[in-house]
Amino acid sequence: MSPNLRFLHVWRRNLKVWRKILIPSIMGNFGEPVLYLLAFGYGFGMLVGDLGEMPYMVFLASGIICSSAMFTASFEGMYSAYTRMDVQHTWSAMLGAPLTVDDIVLGEVAWAATKGLMSAAAILVVAAVLGLVANAWALLALPVLLLTGFTFGACAMVVTAFSKSYDFFLYYFTLVITPTLLLSGVFFPLEQFPAPVQMLAYLLPLAHTVELVRPLLTGTMPTQVLLHLAVIAAYGVAGLMIATRLIRRRLIR
Amino acid sequence: MAAAQPSDTPARSPNHPLVQAHGLTKRYDGRTVVDGVGLTVRTGECFGLLGPNGAGKTTTLRMLLGLTPPDAGELTVLGEPIPERAREARTRIGVVPQFDTLDPDFTVRENLITYASYFGLKGETLARRVEELLEFASLKGREDVNIQSLSGGMKRRLTLARALINQPALVVLDEPTTGLDPQARHHIWHRLRTLLSRDTTLIITTHYMEEAERLCDRLAIIDQGRVIACDSPRALIQAHIEPHVVELSGHAATVWLDKQGALPEGERLHRVGDIALIYTHDPRPLLQRLDADGLRYLHRPANLEDVFLKLTGHDLRD
Ligand SMILES: Nc1ncnc2c1ncn2[C@@H]1O[C@H](COP(=O)(O)OP(=O)(O)OP(=O)(O)O)[C@@H](O)[C@H]1O
Ligand SMILES: [Mg+2]
Q1: Is residue A2 part of a domain?
Q2: For chain B, what are the domain ranges?
Q3: Residue B231: what pLDDT?
Q4: Which of B56, B132, B136, B274 is the one with CA 20 to 30 A from A246?
Q5: Are A76 and A119 within 8 A, CB to CB?
């Protein structure tokens, strides 16, 4: 067994639990975004009309796919991971076995990324069925969404590392996730903002996800691909390293 | 493995140390909770750690597992330096933690299988081992039950079974029988003796002195982070306490003791709560006096609890 693959044991444990509640999980993955798309898209789309060449529904669908990866991975890295750390002592049990904090944190972040990808992919399927996706190039969005899930999962684990209770997560959602959502071009184009706000938006990872995913879904080639990927990945790697350090300090003491 | 031992050797197997600790020290917030502990645990023995609440037993065990980095001291477990190679050592260790860490998202069998996966076990071997352990822990017929619906005894048995999934050379048990009824405790003891007969080494903490006396080949009494005695139960009793104990309790006993004034030479009085314990090498004169005055008493041989109370004092901890 290769030592750097031990995180897969942690990932697989979470997958096994998820499979036990497969039906409601998948219903949740599909149900909510469909409602959002239909309600917002038709309701709002009528008012907004097209954005340049793009119908609002198409614009919105690609945005929601990105934000869904962010939300799902963040939830998993906070509420679910915290439950396993502090309530169910799942990580304590793992530490009695030959797993390390590094394995556990990486496994949890990988799992958060997987869940982020699954929820984004579900919306992608719905969007495709509704005729909101241009062509099969859209599949290239999937690795970007997985990376996005990884990044937000890792950042969520940093928050988890110093949380004393679930209440703490609300601060993170209010102060970080919601502003990120509003600033990143999910619901309306970033160009609406004054230049300094746009600059700020590009300091956050989600804007880069949107810049990559939206063209891929509408059949055009994204530009500055490496730069976008690098920003998202930088947040992910930094988040993972900080989370691992903090959680090690919390558990190994 | 060494060749079979001649049947007259008392030790279970070769006497080389499986755990060797020198000067283990741990401080939390400037308070020293483990203070220069030295331990040697030999292969195949059952080694006990006794001590009042907060003595540092769990902290010591966590250090052995590499889950608490010591502030000072040297430690090898199963030949591996700890904490540097703790993960490697844990591939051959089983752990029964003080507080349950069973996975509530899984059934009994799924708990075993999932925990086994952390060791990289799979396939035929795993399936066979899971069945054996369900048998061993008397959990047959409960395989598919959720953890929440298990009794305390069953949870503990499952935790023990889980600790054995990797066929460990060393099993570390932190209060494995606390909170269990007598039947459940006997069941665990039986299983632990089975393990000892298979040459598995055990390190166990407990607050039950008769448990330690029954199971342990040797034990260390820890108080305020220091080892204050370490030997076989019998040797500890012989070294530290008079062989006879007479217990008195209640109001009549208090009155009688007051009337007696100082006890004669060779009779040592200790009070624990409302119980008076009189220790002596020769109980006959004392028993005669008690019988003459018609007092109720209990005369028994000295046991490990007497040693424990003598060495750690009679006051409440924490
Ligand atoms: N992570 C920690 N941070 C601060 N103090 C700690 C920590 N872990 C243990 N302690 C303290 O160290 C002391 C020893 O604790 P430990 O759990 O080792 O005792 P114990 O002998 O196992 O007690 P018990 O019989 O109650 O289980 C206690 O005073 C405890 O409060
Ligand atoms: Mg303890």
Answers
A1: no
A2: 10-233, 242-301
A3: 97
A4: B56
A5: no
Cα A181 to Cα B309: distance, rounded to the nearest angstrom: 64
Residue A33's CB is within 10 A of a number of other CB atoms, namely: 22
B66 in ligand 1 pocket by Cβ < 6 Å?
Answer: no
Q: How far apart are CA B42 and CA B81, in angstroms?
A: 16
- Triad A183, A187, A192: Cα angle to 5°: 60
- The single-letter code of the amino acid at A175 is L
Looking at the structure, give the CATH architecture of the domain made up of residues B242-301: 2-Layer Sandwich (3.30)
pTM summary value:
0.92
Q: Cβ(B225)–Cβ(B34) under 8 Å?
A: yes
Which of B25, B26, B28, B203 gets mutated to test ligand 1 (max ligand atoms within 8 A of its CB)? B28
Please state, for a pLDDT cut of 70, what percent of chain B lies above it: 93
> Smallest Cα–Cα separation from B28: which of B51, B54, B52?
B54
Asked if A37 and A64 count as a contact pair (C-beta separation under 8 A), the reply is yes
Question: What is the span of the domain harbouring residue A45?
Answer: 7-251
**Residue B54 in contact with ligand 1 by CB distance below 6 A:** yes
pLDDT of amino acid B315: 65
Residue A19, Cβ density class (10 Å: 0-12 exposed, 13-18 middle, ≥19 buried): exposed
Give domain B10-233's CATH architecture.
3-Layer(aba) Sandwich (3.40)
Q: And the tokens for A36?
A: 């959002």
Half-sphere exposure for B169 (CA within 13 Å, toward CB): 16
Residue A252 touches partner B, C-beta closer than 8 Å: yes
ipTM: 0.92
B69 lines ligand 1 (CB under 6 A): no
A215-219, B67-71, B240-244, B260-264: which range is least confident on average? B260-264
CA–CA separation, A112 and A145 (whole Å): 12
DSSP 8-state code for residue B101 = -
Task: Give chain A positions within 8 Å (CB) of B97.
Answer: 92-93, 96
The number of distinct structural domains making up chain A is: 1
Please state, in angstroms and as integers, the Cα–Cα distance from residue B247 to each residue in B52, B274, B300, following that order.
Answer: 22, 11, 8
| Residue A156 is assigned to a structural domain of this protein | yes
Q: What is the DSSP letter of B175?
A: S
pLDDT value at residue B2: 41
